[in-house]
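Q: what sequence does this backbone want?
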């Protein structure tokens, strides 16, 4: 028997990953509890690129029109620039299609749109299915009773960020969409592994640029001189 504090799933973190999962499950009729420790959706650019196959997925979900209504940039090509051999200025060393021919995608471009606007598209759809992101709340603790015969073996302790209100709920599943600083992953002693250390710094600028720089509509990775 369900009560007000039991859920099919508790989702921590309302970035694109958590929101996508929440949107799918709420559409299928699951009872979802979704919290995020920020008072509002993302305010500054972060994961602002939607890959071609991801746009296919959003189309299948019926969310592509809401994304494209913001008139996002479409990047068809990536141009690589390195310091010139003479040591003066930079030179183009190669180009690469954003969506190479060997990728089976309907839309052969990367879509660039502010992450906060992408999140709003998911949030609007969640509202149609009765799910509201609980903000600003965080997870305080959780435990799973593996011997329990209950349908909701996971107990999750939640807290408003200011510490004034706490809530305990039970769930079938706990999902962490918290990103690199995941409380849930830390508690489970699951580390982050990667093949190579991060060697590139990415920056996104939003503005109107007056320039004679070539390939201005392409994505540009620049390699810094080691000197």
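A:
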């Amino acid at each position: 028997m369900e009560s007000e504090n039991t859920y099919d799933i508790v989702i921590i973190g309302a970035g694109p990953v958590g929101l996508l999962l929440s949107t799918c499950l709420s559409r299928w009729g699951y009872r979802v509890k979704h919290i995020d420790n920020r008072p509002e959706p993302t305010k500054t650019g972060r994961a602002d690129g939607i890959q071609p196959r991801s746009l296919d997925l959003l189309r299948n979900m019926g969310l592509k029109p809401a994304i494209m209504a913001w008139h996002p940039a479409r990047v068809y090509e990536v141009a690589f620039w390195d310091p010139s051999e003479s040591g003066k200025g930079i030179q183009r060393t190669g180009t690469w299609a954003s969506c190479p021919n060997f990728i089976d995608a309907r839309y052969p471009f990367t879509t660039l749109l502010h992450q906060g606007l992408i999140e709003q598209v998911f949030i609007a759809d969640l509202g149609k299915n009765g799910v509201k992101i609980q903000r600003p709340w965080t997870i305080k603790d959780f435990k799973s009773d593996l011997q329990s015969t209950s349908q909701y073996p996971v107990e999750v302790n939640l807290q408003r960020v200011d510490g004034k209100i706490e809530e305990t709920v039970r769930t079938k599943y706990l999902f962490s969409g918290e990103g690199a600083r995941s409380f849930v992953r830390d508690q489970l002693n699951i580390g982050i592994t990667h093949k190579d250390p991060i060697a590139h710094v990415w920056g996104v600028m939003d503005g109107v640029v007056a320039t004679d720089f070539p390939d201005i509509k392409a994505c540009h990775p620049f390699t810094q001189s080691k000197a």
